[in-house]
Each structure stands twice: as structure tokens, then as C-alpha cells.
Hints:
Elements: H1 2-24, H2 26-67, H3 70-102, H4 125-130, H5 137-143, H6 146-163, H7 168-189, H8 192-205, H9 209-214, H10 216-240, H11 246-263, H12 266-279, H13 285-298, H14 301-317, H15 324-340, H16 347-358, H17 366-398
Helix pairs in contact: 1-2, 1-8, 1-11, 2-6, 2-7, 2-8, 2-12, 2-13, 3-10, 3-13, 3-14, 3-15, 3-17, 10-11, 10-14, 10-17, 11-12, 11-17, 12-13, 12-17, 13-17, 14-15, 14-16, 14-17, 15-16, 16-17
This protein binds aspartic acid (ASP).
Amino acid sequence: xxxxxxxxxxxxxxxxxxxxxxxxxxxxxxPVDTYFFGPLGTIFLNxxxxxxxxxxxxxxxxxxxxxGDPKKLGRIGSKTIVYFLLTTAVAIVIALILALILxxxxxxxxxxxxxxxxxxxxxxxxxxxxGIIPTNPVTAMAEGNMLQIIFFAALIGFGLAMLGKKxxxxxxxxxxxxxxxxxxxxxxxxxxxxxxxGLIASAVGSQGFDAIRAMGMYMGVVLGALxxxxxxxxxxxxALIGKRxxxxxxxxxxxxxxxxxxxxxxAATLPVSLKMAQERLKVPExxxxxxxxxxxxxNMDGTAIMQGAAVVFIAQAFGIELSLGQLxxxxxxxxxxxxxxxxxxxxxxxxLAMVLTSVGLPVEGIALVLxxxxxxxxxxxxxxxxxxxACAVVVSQTEGVLGDPEMEGVPAESxxx
Length: 417
Ligand code: ASP
């Protein structure tokens, strides 16, 4: 909690400094950003990213050994996927409804005639899913291909569980590696307040505030939908299925949300979100490692919300009416797009091109939302990883293995599920 408080203080300080430079000394901002804010943020981001592949590999291996039984693994996997898909679909529907009611695209004069935007090619979602089996696990790790690493690690864990005593030493080594990595996460997190300061000062300082003013309504729709979704869907499922107080859930997961907010990357936040879920939310490592690593890669409700709101906004700005059928297509493609979105800053915007194309809207429309996307990215990333943690709590409870919230500081028993 002390760390979360320090990060918040750093964020506030970063906003003030970034804003002050942006408004009163714009010419000073660039050099300060290049030599101070930027490097601070990059050092922190790199330290976190450095731990992602080892933490995912080690914790998924141990997670699979802990679950052992492939049937159980299948059941946990199915529950996780169902939760991910349903909540993402609900997220888009909330965004669509809010955008249709509040009509952000009619709340200003958007010059749609003169925009010029080259959309990047969105990677085909099917390729991502079919490419789950790595032909070379070392390449998968070198490239940080999360789904392939998860697959390989799960297979190793399965082998370890099957061979049992014979490979006990290998398992022990991986268990110790896990302790080591968890220690490193705590260590690296000490730098988080400085990193958060640099990241937010850089983001705020480089922001064009005129763009924000013009886009107030669109931002309101996205932020409103993110809030409603978090409270109703995550709070609701944690309370009803997870049998835990939503306030307890949000309070204990808060440090991870703050890191997600500052980094705008689900992947870079993964080490902290795993740690928070295991130590504070008492999710056993076996479930947390799966749901959250997979979720960081394919479950992005916040991103889906942005995409839903942006589609309606762009249609309205261009004066195009969307039919009910088209809205349904948006729900489907935005679910797919959020699965295919990489867990890095700004990736959701690239996939927006795919959603726009699916209903024949001009991809140039992305230029309209581009200016304010960085700030929204920070908030939606925090929501993205909260969905993964909520899922971990819900699945653990339905499996009867969610730890006792009273056991402060003691991780839930992780080896037997
Ligand atoms: N930055 C988001 C994430 O990492 C993805 C996006 O929506 O751009 O979760």
C-alpha cells in the first residue's frame, strides 16, 4: 500500500510538472522529455518487461504441475475463456449503448473532409490463434510471443506432473526460480514511482490540450463505459460468483492498476498483477498464472470499450447511420480485435482499423481519436488487467480454492488445487 501511495504521489507530481511545461514552457519540454522523463519511464518499462517472459514461463510451469490433472486444466481453461468472452462482449455493448445515447460524434465540428490517415495493417486474429504452437520455443521467448510461451510452459508443466518423482529436481529448480523472480519483482517495483513520474509527465507534457477539449464527449463516453464495466461487471462477478467484497478486491489490486495506468501495457504490468493476485487476492498460483497471463494477452475489455465507442463516434462524425446488424458485427469483430490486440501501448488503435472496416466505415476516422488515445490507453489498460484478476478470483472460487482474505501476506496454497 505504501508503494501504491508513492506511485500515486509520483503520478500527481508528474501530471503537474508535465502540464506546467506544456502550458508555460513548451520549448523546454522537448529536451527535458528526451533526457529526463523519457529515460526514467523507459528504465522502468524495460525493468518490468525484462521479467515478463521468465515470470510467465516459470509460473505457468508451476501452475500446470499444481493442477496436474489435464481434465481440471481443461475445466479451468474453459471457465476462463467463457468469462473472458462474455465480459468482453458485455463491455462493447455498454460502450455502444452509451455512445448511441450521448452521441459524442455530434458534439462538435469534426473536419472529416480533410483528414489524412494511413491505417496500419491489422494482424489477422486467426493467425495469432493458430500460431499458438511454437516451432521453436527459444524463438518464442526471444520474441516474447506470449501465447506460444504459455503453450510451451503448460506442456513442460504437464510433463513434470506426469513424471512426478523422476523429475523432482527440475521442479525444485523451477520453484526456486519462481521465488527468485518474485523477489526481483518486489525489487524492481521500488523504482516504480520514478518510472511512473517520467511516464506520466511525458504523456501529459506531449499532449495537445485543444484536442482533448474538442474530444471531451468521446472521452467521457469511453471513461464512463470503463467505469460502469468495472463496477458492474467486475464488482458484480467478484461479489456474486467470487463471494468477495468488490471494495476489498479493488483495494488490494490497486497497486497493479496504478502500474498499468502508468505503463499503458498489460504485458509490462503482468509481473505485478500476478503478484498482487497471489499475495493479496489469495488466488492460487496455479490459477492466477493461467488466467492472468492468458488474459493479459487476449482479454482486453477496456480496449473493446474504446473500440465500440470509437466506431459509433466515427460513424456519427462522418454522418453515417449504423444499423442494428452492423452494431452486432461491431460486437463480434471488437471481441476478436481485442483478442488480437498486443498488450502494448497503442495497440488497440491499430486493431480499431479492423473493426471499422468490418462495417464499412472509413479507417481515416482513426485520426479523429488519435490525439486523445494515449490518455485513454492508460485507463483502459488498468481495466484490461482488472478483468483478468476478477476472472482469476471468480474461477478460483468456483474451484473452491480461493484463499482466506484474512491471511495477510500469506499467499494462497499454490501447489494443490
Ligand atoms: N495498451 C493496451 C494494453 O496493453 C492495449 C491497447 O488497448 O492499446 O492492455
